Every structure is written in structure tokens, then in C-alpha cells.
Amino acid sequence: MTEYFEVHARDGAARVGELRLASPRTTPALVDDVLEDAGSLWSAAREVPEGDESTLTVLPHRAFPGGTAAEVRESFAVEHPDVDYPSVAVVSSDGAEAQGTDAYALSNGQSVTGHGAALVEAVVNVREAIPTDTALLFSGVATPRNVALLAYAGVDLFDETAAVVKGTEGRYLTTDEAYFLEDLEELPCSCPACQQPREEFTREDCAEHNVNALRAELGIVRRRIRDGRLRDYVEGQARHDQWLTAAMRELDSQWGYLEERTPILRDSQISAATEDTLRRVEIQRFADRVTTRYRNRFANPLVLVPCSATKPYSESQSHRQFHDAIQWRGHLVSMTSPIGVVPQELETTYPAQHYDTVVTGRWSEDEKEFVSEVLQRYLERNEYPSIVAHVPDEGYRDIVERVEDALDLDITYTVPEGGHPTDDESISNLSEALAGELKYSKRDREHNTVRAIADYLFGDGAGDDLFDDIRTTSRYPKIQVRDRDDTQLATMVPQYGTLSFTLAGAKRWVDSDAPTKRVEIDGFVPHGSVLAPGVVDADEDVRVGDEVVVEGPKAFGVGRAEMFGREMRESTRGIACEIRHVEEK
User: Fold this and answer.
1) pLDDT tens-place string over residues 315-344
2) N or C: which terminus of the chain carries fewer CB neighbours within 10 A?
3) CA distance linking residue 548 with residue 243, whole number of Å
């Protein structure tokens, strides 16, 4: 826990924070000019410095290389004093522990940089061991090419060392390459150091340029984090070096680490420009919840259709044609890469209406494998009297046929070979395939939408536990949920496809069998927001963006989480959750 570092914005493991020195600094950032090293205890005894709030002081330390035996680390462990100024403890990735400091410097950062798996293991080990509201410092490794990935992994503080050293060695750094200075006919940069003829450009100028480029890249990273778009940037940036691509993919395999830190909703759009998008937490989480929590409540046939560029799908011209033919006689489920399958009730639920993908008309094998796996899991969980596939040949039909063979199904295809789903013949076939089926009502559509969203957000069966006996008002997608006494319980939020509870709804949630996400607070009545110091406890499964019940000795309320559960418990600064409704006990 710290008084000198506060997180203001989050994007997965990456954070924009404030290093609260006498002159505050926004992170991720370079800290050379404010970093004071008290020195290594390997070479000599060191006094604990007096320190002050203008600098970030590295306390006397013994750095251990990676792989140092535990008994050696224990024998030479340093007792860090409790100081009242901004401080840093030096830790190894093998045995990091909380030391009560504001930041932690990784002793073996240089040895793991350049090796994807080793880097990710080191960062995850340290971040999981130290308090969530403290900063992580990597020294001697940051370059314009790798700093975005390092920040994405969870590193907050850097120094100029690597950039300066490479400059004095004659290596000119950019975000995509490290050039030998003698190979450059012209300077591909307009920073102050590069505002001179190439023949006058020295290695000292090169070092200055490298630092400028690093600072500029950190500015881009901070902007991307605030926008919730760092992952999109990293997917492109990591391509410039194989080990960075490997590190990004290794991070994707660290599900627990990234999922805990990834919001369940956000305003920004996912740019599905590479196949690595399939491994993003938001995509995998949606596919997992659809195939383990969602339950079809309609008795009508399943109609599989392609996605559309317009989101939500129902507002697209193609899906309006599908709806005109189906006439509520079938349950519509869209197939799409990179999302998987999207039941009509969840078409507005993040990220189903918050992504854009590259449209080529051709599916990669990875995309086919992912979507077919999701569709198979969906059909294994949900039963239908029959299945209609209104999909074109390329990609879509191949996926459906794979699942049809795997599950031994008999699926009706309504798009002729070489045809298009919106052709007159295809639309006519779709309508005829549903001949004789009864329409389901607007009431069923709205009630099942509310229940499906509750299942998705809170857990399998939550929809029936919470909303078994309800009535709905207003128009989709701004559905209001009321009980039989006309008391409003919740409202559907069309921007994210989530549910926003009233106090009555929150009380019903607490009294139900549905899993409740709780935040326990101290003895006060919050207004507007709950700050982290006021949190006594929070459920482990709370994620940023989750609906949460907030309760303490003096208050009962409901709102939305701004931190994940463990972060609420560990943090000493920042907003833990925003309060929508509260009442005094």
C-alpha cells in the first residue's frame, strides 16, 4: 500500500497512474531525474537516506539474479525500513514480497528482456506478489520499440539507460527498428536532436534522439491506456520484434492475471485486425460465458445467420431482412469472428456491439476453429427442435458443417450454393423453413433478454433467480424491469448491454440464490463514490464495470465497480466504486 502512487486509468494490466512527488508525474513514465539510489549492500554498508517528497528513493538493497536459490535469498534478505517518503524496494522475480514501499524495482529485468516467456513470468510473479496500488520499475531495458509491450504487461516506471547506451553505441532507435547510425542517409525523425544535417549528427545526438523517441512512445502509450485501446496498438507494435510477439502471446496464456484486471465493459471499440485478437480476454470471456452461463429459453427453431458490419446487428439492413423473413418464429443467433456466436438477447452486451473486424470474405483456419468450437459448445448446452443455417458458403457453412458432423445433427441450409443470404431466393427459403412455427411474443422476447443478460453478468441460472416473476416497460433496448407491484428493479443499459439495479433490485439480488458481488464498507454513508480506504472487504470475483452491492454498518447501496475486488481491498487511494443509489440504515 502506498501514499505516493495512485492509479487513475486502467487497460488490462496497464495503468495510467500518478507518482505523487512534490512535482507529480504521470505514469508510465521515465523517472531518471527523480530517482535516487541509496546503493547496494553487496559492496558496502549503507545508511538509510533521509529522503524527501521530491524524489523516489531506492532503499539500500541486495539485488539477486534470476534463478538464485531460495536459501541464498533468505540468507541475504534485506530488512526494508518504514520510511515516510516515496521509496522503492529492489526485488527478484523469484521471491518478490510486499515490503511496504511505494514502488518495486525488478533486479533481473535486463536478463528477462528479450525472452517472451521469461519476461511474462517475471512480471506476473512480481505483480501478483506486491500490492496492486504500487508501481513496478524496470531499469535498463526500455526502448521505443518494447516499452508499449512492457506497459501492457504491467510495468509503470522506466529509465533512459538502454536508450542512452544504444545511442552512444551508434544505434538509432525508432518504434520499429534499431538502425546503425552509419547506415542512415537521412534522419527519419523531427525531434529537436534530429534538427540538423545528417553529417553533423553525432552519437551524443543519437542518444538524445533515442530518449526523445522513448518519451514520445510513452505519451502514445498513456493516451492508448486512457482510451482503452492499448491492446490494439500492441498487436501491431509487437510485430516489429519476434520476442515481443511471443511475450504478447505468453501474456494471453496468463488468463488469471489478465482476466482479473480486464474490465467487463468499456466505451472503446475492439479492432480485430489480427488473429491474436481471438486470444484477447474480452473475446475469450464472452465465448466462455455464452457457452457456460447463457441458456436458450425459446421453444422455437434455432436460426444461424452471419454477422453484420453495423452494430448492434438488428439495426443492419441484412438483419432487418432476416427478421422480416423469420417473423419471430425462430431464435436468431449470429456467427462472427472474433466473437464466436451471439444470441439475439446479447447483441448489445460488450463486446458484441463494440468490435470491428477486417472484412476479406475469407476465413483463416484459426477463425474457423475458434468459432466452430464455440458453436459446438453452445449447441451441446442448448437444445432446439430444429436448426436452420442461413449462412453463405465461405467460412460460415464450413463451420456449421463441422459442428453438424461432430454432433450428428440434421441442419437445414437455406442459402443456395454460391448464393447470398439477402438474395430473394435465400430469404424465401428462410421463410419457408419456418412455415408452421408459432411466433413468440414481445413479452417473451423482452423477459428472455433481461434473464439472458443476468445469466451472462452474474452466473448460470441468475436470470430465473432474479427475474422469474416480472413485467417489462419501455422500448428495447432500454427495457425497464418491474416486479408485480410495479416497483422498478433494473434498467437495461443499451450502451453496454448490461443491467443497472435500483435499490429494490439490489435487495432482491441479495435475497436471491444468484451469486452476489459485494463490497463491504466502513461505517459511513457514501455519496457519489466509495474511495478505496473506505473498503473493508470486496468479493474476489468483482471486476471493473461489474454491478456491485455496497453495504456497511450505516448504509446499503448499489453501483458499479471501478477497481477489481483485490485492488479494492489493497489500495489506499482511488475510487473503488461509483454509487448509483444508497440508503441510510
Assistant:
1) 999 999 999 999 999 999 999 999 999 999
2) C
3) 40
